[in-house]
Amino acid sequence: MHILVLMVAMMTAWPALSQPAPGGEAKPIKLVVLGDSLSAGLGLPGQAAFPARLQKALNDNGLDVEISNAGVSGDTASGGRDRLDWSVPDGTEGVILELGANDALRGIDPKITRDALSDIVGRLKARGIPVMVCGMLAPPNYGSDYAAQFNAIYPDLAKSFGVPLYPFFLDGVAADAKLNQADGMHPTAEGVDIIVNRILPTVRAFVGTIGGQHR
Predict the structure, then answer these.
(1) Active-site residues: which are they?
(2) Which of helix, strand or coil describes residue 114?
(3) pLDDT tens digits, residue range 77-127?
């Protein structure tokens, strides 16, 4: 009888024993999405924007993360570089980089875009902050030579810095009228969810590398 009581008591106490001690709770991994209007959620309520939906998806998959939305509509890669220090504060443990779409729309020299993105990744790595790069594809109106130079930026960047790459941020959504707002460029809430669903495996792997060294 005494043994049975003791076993029940131990089973009841076990969840408490397995929890972190008060004051020692694990803290969520802090990520920042550094991007433009595509990730900022132009035309959508905040909770429908990419960072919020991605955070929910990761949380639903058992990953404790907090994601800050550092997207600025109209921003170019150079603009993101200029605001890097205040957009990615100290304490950030990972950055998802989504910039370059506006460069391509404006026909900016791919070398300028490449240099700006390289500076961003290099400066973040120098701060000890892991980076995941989201690729972008140039629209066809600037010709095949421009597209070839621009599209090569992202795989080259990932290879040279040894960072993970999601090849095309708008994969599955671009040019689909049903998944874009009236301007034909910015995803609807449904479009954002498709982006999140497709990018999730890459982000989970990225967060896993951070979690392995997390506190």
Answers:
(1) 37, 183, 186
(2) helix
(3) 999 999 999 999 999 999 999 999 999 999 999 999 999 999 999 999 999
